[in-house]
Amino acid sequence: xxxxxxxxxxxxxxxxPVEALADCARAAVERDGATILNYGPVAGYxxxxxxxxxxxxxxxxxxxxxxxxxxxxxxxxxxxxDPGTRVLVEGxxxxxxxxxxxxxxxxxxxxxxxxxxxxxxxxxxxxxxxYTIPTFQNPSGRTxxxxxxxxxxxxxxxxxxxxxxxxxYSLVRYEGEPLPSIYQLAEGEGxxxxxxxxxxxxxxxxxxxxVAPVELVSRLEALAVQTYLTPALLPQATVHEFVSRxxxxxxxxxxxGLLRERRDAMLEALEADLPDGASWSRPQGGYFTWLDFSExxxxxxxxARGEEQGVTFVAxxxxxxxxxxxxxxxxxxxxxxxxxxxxxxxxxLAALLREPRSSPVPV
Amino acid sequence: xxxxxxxxxxxxxxxxPVEALADCARAAVERDGATILNYGPVAGYxxxxxxxxxxxxxxxxxxxxxxxxxxxxxxxxxxxxDPGTRVLVEGxxxxxxxxxxxxxxxxxxxxxxxxxxxxxxxxxxxxxxxYTIPTFQNPSGRTxxxxxxxxxxxxxxxxxxxxxxxxxYSLVRYEGEPLPSIYQLAEGEGxxxxxxxxxxxxxxxxxxxxVAPVELVSRLEALAVQTYLTPALLPQATVHEFVSRxxxxxxxxxxxGLLRERRDAMLEALEADLPDGASWSRPQGGYFTWLDFSExxxxxxxxARGEEQGVTFVAxxxxxxxxxxxxxxxxxxxxxxxxxxxxxxxxxLAALLREPRSSPVPV
Lengths: 363, 363
Hints:
The structure is a homodimer. By secondary structure, the first copy, chain A, is α/β, with parallel strands linked by helices.
């Protein structure tokens, strides 16, 4: 059987505006080749930095454009995390953020969540910072409510908590009204905002950015120049050409249309197929739904059987600090697989849940 | 006065093959957009990795293509350097390598050099590794002799010394016969080889690579995936298109022609203008010459006066571990300034050296 992989949080190939980007890449080099092709500012391609600054109502020296947003978060962790420092994360959270915090010796503490996102009453302060993906979270698909955003913004403005707001998915919204970012609500005080073009233009370009106070951006620049000198300027100039041609809005609409179909297919299939006891999030946007199996189901054991039966997912425990949860849960990504594949995969998953467990293998 | 900056180790704009790269960028996206524009292998764009492997007679799993070669060195230092470890470097050496070693808590020890490069008898073993730029070194312009390369290769093959060979300049040769790399002489044993396309294609693309044993590449990949997921694929695919069209050799010849003129202008002007007592290296390639002022001259003081008189350079001490040398020396880069500017700058430098020192400023 061909395996249906609900593992990959990756855009479907149809989402990528190949022709437009081929054109933009060429045009960018022809227009500004001497700048793009030489060493340049470590904070990124000037015109894109200015575009970002205008978009967020900040000055360009508050913007650091990096080789993908993860590189920005990685630099940020190197600057903010000392060994032994507590770092608050959502439980569950993006697994790579957990690894980055751990690599710098930080101690990730998971903040409990419900359908309205992380619970502000569960924040254990003080902490170096809170890492949050408030909108269409990876891995849960959940969105932080407006009221809770306000509370985090208040803590940030009062200087009680530095919030690192990772926002790659918010433009990929299938329904409902956009919410203000924590960054907006706090008017930038006490919040570092991270954005990525991966989900609305193309991930292989590796273009993301941070918006942060000038002093912090300067520290990040100093580290970045000793790490990679200059980010790759061709992709940044290509993105700049893309937004200058006003292709972003229509591309987002196109991507949203393609992925909404997949989200719908996933939710409908889960509803139709899964046995009682299972529950899952109903994301209004983004790439993921979070599935809680019925009590007593072990996600790792289920995954092992799924690999034989042609359906895979990421076990929930990968999104928690070690031993802190997720044993009965899974992340299902619907962004890469087609609606037809989603239906097949969900049916296989349902069959697995109905099957008796495989008998223990004699050692 | 317009300042003549001998500071910038950057290719002149005329070196950048703008039209060809505009074309290659477009063609690469048109040919392989679905791969280039999505998340991909952390070790780099597959076809480029294969091209590199073939070039060096290794397997692709021995190759890591990074966002510029400095990023590769940065990952390497993170993996190889523990706090307190001794790391051998040339004295003088590339300043950013010193910073990277120090950032990871390593202790750089400078190995003395003469016109034949570093002195193998001066290596203080054991050490985590030796970082060397054997050909047209930054900052000295010197080249390690064949006999010394053989000795380093022998130490590497015997497992007594890990050599990190940084080789961005060797193809930019104005005269003389190419020398084998240490990597070649050691047949890859005990040597990590680093290459960059910055000096022969374009630095703004940020494409460089490491060739290393499979186990080490795996460790670097594991770190890279937690740092930036995937390198920027568009520039790598653009470089691949460039080499596939067999444009590399003719571009190198063109760049060498342009820069040889500048090297010649620099050496002739220093010969004609500088007072007795000064001496300098006579590089057969690359971007730099290393200037030793007459005894008692303080490079930092000279630089301060130079900034007023319209000529700048990088003070030699920046290329040594703190307090370990370079006080009477300077790095002069001739790659970015035109031959006419080089002559003006050298004359200004000569005038500075002839002038009495400025009297101390009362505090």
